[in-house]
Amino acid sequence: MVRFLNQAADMNNLPPSHLLSLGVCPSSASIFPYPSSPIDCVEAHRVCSADPLCEALYRGLELCAAEAAVSPLGEQAAAECLERQDDLLAKHPALSTCKCQRGFRKEEQCLRIYWRVRLLPGQSAECLKAAQDCGLYEKCGSLRSEYVLACTKRVPGSNRCNQHKCHRALRRFLERVPEEYSLSVLFCPCTNTLCGERRRKTIVPSCSYQEMEGLQPNCLHQQSFCRRDDLCRSRLADFLSNCQPSLLTTSGCLKDSAGLCLRAYAGLIGTIMTPNYISNSSADVSLWCNCEGSGNQWQDCLRLQRMFTHNTCLRKYTLYTGHTLSFDDVFVCIVSDGRINT
């Protein structure tokens, strides 16, 4: 593990042309430079240990790792461990962005802490890599921690989150983090329900997606509210334009560009029309709404719903290599300009 992390650091120092000659896509750090001053993981853990709740969560993760080293965790135990991890990183975001310096006197201790809060069972290789890559890239890790905190923090004196702040933080993450990181986290493929549940919870749906009371609004009412907001109205128009399905194209999209649809779908996240996965056992997506009470606009409501639930354009994404995969198998490929090819 030490060698892996050190090699990763060395690769990030190579110019993009050298990386491409090695068959490796360049790091977005060379394309989107940001100042770097991450805290080291030993210091991050020291701060955490001063908080009894944070330290208890960390010790719980150590037990998870110890049990997993003996035998694979059952689904319930693994789910509890992932819940612990989410709670810890929301409580103390510095642990998700901390780094370890090669040659540092406490390097092994630092790396042990680094991996303890990242490596847990139940994720596919692609989802694990996406989460690790996001954590290693400071801008992605810090903005992800920012939106998790915003979406889990309760409004004083209530049991509700501040959905407005949650949506704003999600938009910041998607707008400021290069697509190779942000979309990989959102759309990594899963092969089991535990990974699927983790993927479903990526955008903290209890705040960003559904209402605290659990009651679904009418989809046309939701669309009406969206159209009163300039940003939401533009994002929805972008989605309806770029994700029109077609049975006549290989991509399943009328514009024959699944890359445009993927971006447009992601653009809705952080608005009142935020979509999400509807379960942990599939990659089906939907809005948090229904068509009850639509009256003579029932068909209009169903058409809006089906743009998410029965959309061939959403269910197929064309990779830059030309291969077409189902929505459940999608993995966002890194290309030399840090964007998804269309």
From TrEMBL:
A GO biological process held by the record: nervous system development
Locations listed in the record: Cell membrane
Alphabetical UniProt keywords: Cell membrane, Glycoprotein, Membrane, Receptor, Signal
Chief localization: membrane
Superkingdom, natural source: Eukaryota
Single Gene Ontology MF annotation: signaling receptor activity
Any one Pfam family match given in the protein's UniProt record, by short name: GDNF
GO cellular component, one term: receptor complex
Record domain GDNF/GAS1: where: 41-122, 127-207, 219-313
Keyword flag Phosphoprotein: no
Family: Belongs to the GDNFR family.
PANTHER family xrefs: GDNF FAMILY RECEPTOR ALPHA-3 (PTHR10269:SF15), GDNF RECEPTOR ALPHA (PTHR10269)
Name the record gives this protein: GDNF family receptor alpha 3
